[in-house]
Write a structure and sequence with these properties.
It contains 24 helices and 10 strands. The chain is α/β, with parallel strands linked by helices and 677 residues long. It folds into 2 domains: 374 residues, no CATH class; 188 residues, Response regulator (Rossmann fold). A 6-stranded mixed sheet has the order 1-3-2-4-7-8, sandwiched between helices. A two-stranded antiparallel sheet has the order 5-6. A two-stranded antiparallel ribbon has the order 9-10. The longest helix is centred in the middle third of the chain and has 34 residues. The radius of gyration is 30 Å and the shape is elongated. The termini are far apart.
Length: 677
């Protein structure tokens, strides 16, 4: 197996390398300890990757040099037949935990990650999401750790093909297999390491999960296996190499700030450390590291390292979800480690070993493959059923009459006295991924710009020649409002061009914004001035999770003054409150009427809109405030009019923003004096 047992069954005691099994134990302990207590990258996974390629190449080379059949199909069937059973057990347990204790808002992500884990593309799923793996929290997927197993699964398909190709090339060239394979894997090592260093510098979050940026670690393990017969240092150098290697592995994550540097050249530290330990091998010295690594308790832990790796992460994340804690304390972490080891031991003894030794299955390749597929279906069937149930519920909610979910309309003074009808709230917790704002299609000439800073340019174009052209500049809070601004623009025959950048509120040059945001704002300002619009729409205020809770956007007036000086009107929308907790999950777990999900309005917003002061002195500046449609006179609820207001800590749901359309339209027309459509 990959993390727990050799890549090939132990045909004889002579083929077994106890120091490698012990090295697995050290690596998995590092992974577990660093995840649970330190929130850091340990380098342990990199050791696993090297070991897996080392053992696979060692086995394959033995077959080539003894002229035994390579049997690639049989190798793949056996390999995944050993990997899948324990993974299925853990995936089923994780799915059950998700159904029982995880917020429904997380279900969609967990289902996606379930499929990605089962089908060995979890690393690409995470790379596209660009998550930070080493930081465990309740918001992290309980299946996220399958990323490394996915990379290994992909390489376990690729590597035998490469090795078989090397064997064929060696025969055709009448050259030694080790020379040909060594050349191939040296090339892969150089190319992949170079790519890894470059991509880590440019986009570390993506590189961390990128198979291409990890191939060099596998190539290094293969090169070690190929060169092993010539690596025979004397006893004292071997003893020194073993200890140097183990210390490099153990101290890498502690002494080196590796979090934002993996898997670039920094990953050479644990992988070369593993190479040293394996090269040292059995020293025969009482001082050799192999004496420690070959101790029975270490070997037993190494034998269950695959299952331990599988179990520790979902147990940790489930605890964080249930407890609401940000991280595990020392005592709780010790319990999690103990529970993980216990479950790993049970899984290894009752699942892995019995299936591995089931001779009836292994006599026929078809039986082994059938068993593997059947086990995979044990996860695929409930995932499919879960998805179907969620889709049906979402469709049912979407088909409800609008009158059952009035949202912001319920706060209007003229709302019927009978109150909000009794109905299921929207949106469905599982559909939050579709609740982001819709900014419309991309820009077209002459509004399309080649400036890379303004690559997120969206354009809403009416059917007739527009009466007004409005340029929206802002961040994700401007994006969320586009679900209302777009329909209002079409209703009133306006053209809207939106320039958006996440986490970048529009304003003048400010030390409170990073250089990239300041550059974006400057480029957007210059672009807007060149277009000579009728109005600029921005968010004039910004809210915070703690004091002072609300203020004008930093250097806001400096940002809008060039437009005002040129006679361009500025429409300033007041920001919605934000909270130090996920408002949707609060409502789901605590109930929509829970006090903590209905904070006092005075605690999250200032009594007056900070942008109103500008409107008193600038006649072209229009301050629009929707607070009375987001909050009551006293509270800012999680749900209004059978519609959940927030999707997370601070973003409004699209479903709720759409209920703001009438109020926003009236207030823009009233403030500007424009005629309605």
């Amino acid at each position: 197996m990959v993390l727990g047992s050799a890549a090939e069954p132990r045909k004889s005691q002579q083929a077994f390398r106890p120091e490698v099994e012990g090295l697995r134990a050290v690596a998995v302990l590092m992974v577990v300890v660093y995840h649970i207590w330190l929130d850091r990258v340990s380098g342990g996974v990199d050791v696993f990757l090297l070991i897996s390629a080392f053992l696979l190449t060692l086995s394959f080379t033995g077959r080539v040099e003894t002229q035994r059949p390579l049997d690639l199909l049989g190798r793949w069937v056996r390999m995944f037949g050993r990997l899948v059973p324990a993974a299925v057990i853990v995936l089923l347990a994780t799915i059950a935990a998700a159904l029982l204790v995880f917020p429904q808002a997380r279900w969609g992500e967990i289902i996606d990650h379930g499929w990605a884990s089962l089908l060995y593309f979890q690393n690409w799923s995470l790379a596209l999401g660009a998550v930070e793996y080493q930081a465990a929290s309740a918001a992290v997927s309980p299946m996220q750790h399958f990323w490394s197993l996915s990379i290994q699964g992909q390489v376990f398909i690729l590597w035998p093909l490469l090795l078989a190709g090397c064997a064929a090339a060696a025969r055709a060239l009448r050259s030694p297999f080790r020379v040909v394979a060594g050349t191939v894997f040296t090339t892969i090592f150089i190319m992949s390491l170079s790519f890894s260093v470059s991509e880590t510098i440019q986009n570390q979050a993506f590189a961390y999960f990128d198979t291409r940026a990890r191939l060099w670690e596998f190539a290094l393990g293969s090169l070690l296996a190929l060169a092993l017969p010539w690596l025979r240092p004397h006893k004292i150098p071997r003893v020194l190499m073993g200890w140097i290697g183990l210390l490099a592995i153990a101290l890498c994550g502690i002494l080196i700030p590796v979090g934002d540097a993996f898997p670039g050249y920094i990953a050479l530290v644990p992988t070369v450390g593993a190479l040293f330990v394996i090269t040292a091998g059995q020293t025969g010295s009482r001082w050799g590291i192999d004496r420690l690594l070959s101790a029975p308790p270490i070997l037993r832990l190494g034998g269950m390292s695959y299952a331990l790796y599988l179990w520790h992460w979902p147990i940790l994340i489930t605890y964080l979800v249930v407890s609401g804690a940000e991280r595990a304390s020392f005592s709780v972490g010790a319990v999690i480690i103990g529970a993980s080891i216990l479950l790993a031991a049970v899984t290894t003894r009752l699942v892995e070993r019995p299936i591995r030794s089931w001779r009836w299955v292994h006599r026929r390749r078809r039986r082994n493959a059938t068993l593997t597929v059947a086990l995979a279906l044990v996860v695929a069937v409930p995932l499919t059923g879960w998805e179907t149930q969620i889709s049906s519920n979402e469709h049912q909610l979407e088909s409800q009459p609008d009158a059952l979910n009035p949202g912001a309309a319920a706060l209007a003074p003229d709302y019927p006295a009978g109150g909000v009808p009794d109905a299921d709230p929207i949106p469905a917790a599982t559909d939050l991924g579709n609740e982001w704002g819709n900014a419309g299609p991309g820009c077209t000439p002459p509004y399309l710009t080649s400036d890379p800073l303004l690559e997120r340019c969206h354009q809403i174009e009416p059917d007739a020649e527009p009466d007004k052209t409005i340029i929206v500049i802002g961040d994700s809070h401007a994006l969320q409002l586009m679900s209302a601004i777009g329909p209002i623009a079409l209703e009133n025959n306006w053209r809207v061009v939106a320039l958006l950048k996440d986490a970048c509120r529009y304003g003048g040059e400010s030390a409170e914004r990073d250089d990239e945001c300041n550059a974006f704002n400057a480029a957007a300002r210059e672009y807007a001035q060149d277009q000579n619009p009728d109005a600029i729409l921005t968010l004039g205020t910004i809210t915070y999770t703690d004091e002072p809770r609300e203020s004008l956007v930093p250097d806001y007036q400096a940002g809008i003054q060039p437009f005002l000086d040129e006679g361009v009107e500025v429409i300033s929308i007041r920001d919605n409150p934000r909270f130090p907790f996920n408002m949707f999950e609060c409502a789901e777990l605590q109930g929509v009427d829970a006090p903590q999900c209905n904070p006092d309005r005075a605690e999250v917003l200032l009594p007056e809109n900070p942008a109103d002061a500008i409107a008193e002195t600038e006649p072209l500046f229009h301050s629009v405030d929707l607070t009375d449609r987001i909050c009551t006179d006293t509270t800012c609820p999680a749900m209004i009019g059978n519609v959940f207001v927030y999707r997370d800590f601070d973003h409004l749901n699209r479903s709720y923003v759409e209920t703001l359309i009438p109020a926003l339209e009236r207030r823009i027309l009233a403030e500007t004096g424009w005629s309605g459509g």
